[in-house]
Design goal:
With 351 residues, the chain is of the alpha/beta class. The protein is built from 10 helices and 16 strands. The relative contact order is 0.15.
């Protein structure tokens, strides 16, 4: 791709579901769950050869800024930007659009979450390149859709319409919020739905047009960031007052035309401890672990030790056991979604 291709990496999530490894200052995207690199590092390196490093903007928040800079020591200093408050994806993307528009008004950009697992870099780059070319050619907003592997009620869905010419893209009929299990089942059975992975590609001009039409308050902020010689002051003075809403609700559901390009790469949201079990070593009794484990009449457990401590399982089933440097979590695997309810009750230094 040319020097006019940019990437905006969103790296400000809280990652509560991976406590006790994840904390306010070190959320999921900063954890080394699958390799010697954090998910954020993997996301940035996945763009090698496609997007110049100086064109990759990483958005985080003030609590996590120091940790982000530590894991990305070679990244251009001004390309790591800390939001002064959490205002959801519409405000974050408006900030990124403003910065990129100031650098190159004719740019094409991709918006990418920092906390997903994608191992097929070549297929990912081909899909992103194809989506960028389509966005440039049509002037439409483009999103990457993930073909569902099961009827997950925890994801948003994208309903596709007619195919665009001979391409592999389709018009988007509508974005659907997280459905109940029965509705999710009907979505998957129809074959016309994709999971919404929060990956978007568009030209700066196209997204500016949509902000002006559908979110004039955010468009005003984009303009202020774009045109100010002191972007840090505008960010500090105005970001906290922006409304808290998602880019899906503010723009994507209202835009004049959105296209969806089905992903050809592997993708996993890795939303919590149960989601990573398939990437760990598979042991007898359907147990999974990242460390040495001795098993005696124990089954269906997930064990993760940050220090690779030897763990012995005796007579226990369906547990998630996680050891960090200063805390241990033991919970039933069916209760992992409730970890966020536990965090406010532990000492503040462990949050």
């Amino acid at each position: 791709m040319s020097n006019s291709f940019y990437a905006l990496v969103l790296a400000g999530g809280s990652g509560e579901r991976f406590w006790p490894l994840s904390r306010k200052a070190t959320p999921k995207q900063l954890l080394r769950l699958f390799s010697s690199q954090s998910l954020l590092e993997e996301t940035v390196h996945r763009l090698d050869g496609l997007v110049p490093l100086e064109n990759i903007l990483v958005l985080t928040n003030q609590e996590q800024e120091a940790a982000v800079r530590r894991v990305l020591p070679e990244h251009p200093e001004n390309n790591i930007v800390a939001e002064p408050a959490k205002r959801d994806t519409a405000a974050a993307i408006a900030l990124g659009v403003g910065i990129i528009a100031a650098r190159n008004a004719s740019a094409t950009m991709a918006v990418l979450p920092a906390d997903h697992r994608i191992s097929d870099k070549a297929a990912f780059q081909l899909d992103l390149k194809g989506a960028a070319q389509m966005a440039e050619r049509t002037g439409d907003l483009v999103t990457i859709g993930i073909t569902p592997t099961w009827a997950c009620p925890g994801f948003g869905y994208i309903e596709r319409g007619k195919q665009i010419g001979n391409s592999d893209a389709f018009e988007v009929i509508r974005f659907r919020e997280k459905p109940n299990p029965d509705l999710a089942e009907s979505f998957v059975r129809s074959g016309n739905f994709y999971w919404n992975a929060g990956m978007f590609i568009w030209s700066v001009n196209s997204i500016l047009t949509e902000f002006n039409r559908h979110a004039p308050d955010l468009a005003e902020f984009v303009s202020a960031i774009r045109n100010s010689p002191d972007k840090k002051k505008v960010l500090a003075d105005r970001f906290r007052s922006l409304r808290k809403t998602s880019i899906d609700y503010a723009i994507m559901e209202k835009a004049s035309r959105v296209l969806v390009k089905p992903a050809t790469f592997d993708w996993d949201d890795v939303g919590g401890w149960t989601a990573i079990s398939k990437y760990l070593e598979q042991l007898s009794g359907n147990n999974a672990a990242n460390c040495p484990v001795t098993v005696e009449t124990a089954s269906n457990n997930i064990v993760f030790s940050d220090s690779k401590t030897h763990v012995a399982l005796l007579g226990v089933n369906d547990l998630v056991i996680v050891q960090s440097k200063d805390a241990i979590l033991v919970c039933h695997r069916h209760d992992v979604e409730k970890i966020k309810n536990l965090i406010p009750k532990v000492p503040e230094r462990l949050q």
